[in-house]
Design a protein that fits this description.
There is one protein chain. The relative contact order is 0.16. The protein has a six-stranded mixed β-sheet, sandwiched between helices. Strands 2-1-4-5 form a four-stranded antiparallel β-sheet, covered by helices on one side. The chain is an alpha/beta fold. The chain starts with 6 loop residues before the first strand and ends in a 7-residue tail after the last strand. The chain has nine helices and twelve strands. The chain is globular and about 55 Å long. It has one domain: P-loop containing nucleotide triphosphate hydrolases (Rossmann fold).
Length: 268
């Protein structure tokens, strides 16, 4: 008997009220235990697709299944027990401390409105240590650096104990050191029973860390596979309209070097 995919999208479409078709007939499935990179130019539908997966947006048509069950008839609480979201930007921290922010990840499981059980407090404390922010636990989340905030948001998703984690542009405001730091944490989080889907612009970074890459353009899937199989000069030109060199460094890691814009600009 075939194993049920952790995540499956079936002919997913999202059309906004203004007629913009953001996601077009997207179908694919992912097993558990993988770090998956979602790459493509701005406006290609990456964030919209992830918002359809966790029902922040309702799809126009198609279906999203987690462990073989559609999310379309699930409550937000039921979805939150399966899917955790790590946004690109932290909005509305409302003066919460680091500890209080991470504790929000346990909200789908809390049975008491007034206080958290000791086991949840212990889980949060362990996560703070794991992601290197325990020394910041009493600091307001708004007072942290970009790299520190990103680790706190990942810790919050971690204590949610999800089957699927959706991470939207986790390194967009980080320098090189913290880009690698965040990706190392995400890579360490992948377990045999959980998959992490990361939307990111840095193709070389995705190629280094991800087991699979999904490439999108104008709402469609242009390729899915191992980074070294799908990231080619031809695909980069087709998706990004950029001529690029794709090579391997001394350690065998793939890198992408953009060279020039290839769209015809006409006579200047």
């Amino acid at each position: 008997m075939d194993e049920v995919p952790l995540l499956e999208l079936r002919e997913l479409n999202k059309v906004y009220e203004d007629g913009y078709h953001a996601v077009r007939d997207v179908s694919y499935s992912l097993p558990a235990g993988m770090l998956v990179g979602l790459i493509g130019p701005n406006g290609c539908g990456k964030s919209t697709m992830m918002k359809c997966i966790n029902r922040l947006h309702d799809p126009t048509s198609g279906d999203v299944l987690i462990d073989g069950e559609s999310v379309l008839d699930k409550t937000p609480g039921e979805i939150a027990r399966k899917v955790a979201n790590v946004p690109a930007e932290l909005r509305g921290s409302f003066g919460l401390t680091v500890f209080e922010t991470v504790m929000l990840g346990r909200y789908p499981y809390l049975k008491n409105v007034w206080w958290e059980p000791p086991e949840d407090e212990e889980m949060v404390s362990v996560a703070l240590e794991k992601f290197g922010v325990a020394h910041l636990k009493d600091r307001p989340i708004g007072a942290l650096s970009s790299g520190e905030r990103q680790r706190v948001l990942i810790a919050k998703a971690y204590v949610q104990n999800p089957r699927l984690m959706l991470v939207d542009e986790p390194t967009s405001h980080l320098d090189m050191k913290y880009k690698l730091d965040v990706m190392e944490y995400l890579n360490a989080m992948v377990k045999k029973d959980m998959t992490v889907l990361v939307a990111e612009h840095d193709i070389s970074l995705m190629a280094r860390y991800c087991d699979l890459c999904i490439i999108m353009k104008k709402g469609r899937i242009m390729g899915i596979g191992k980074p070294k199989d799908v990231i080619t000069p031809e695909l980069i030109e087709e998706v990004y309209e950029v001529s690029a060199s794709v090579g391997f460094d001394g350690d065998g890691e793939l890198f992408v070097l953009p060279k020039r814009y290839v769209r015809d600009h006409g006579t200047l």
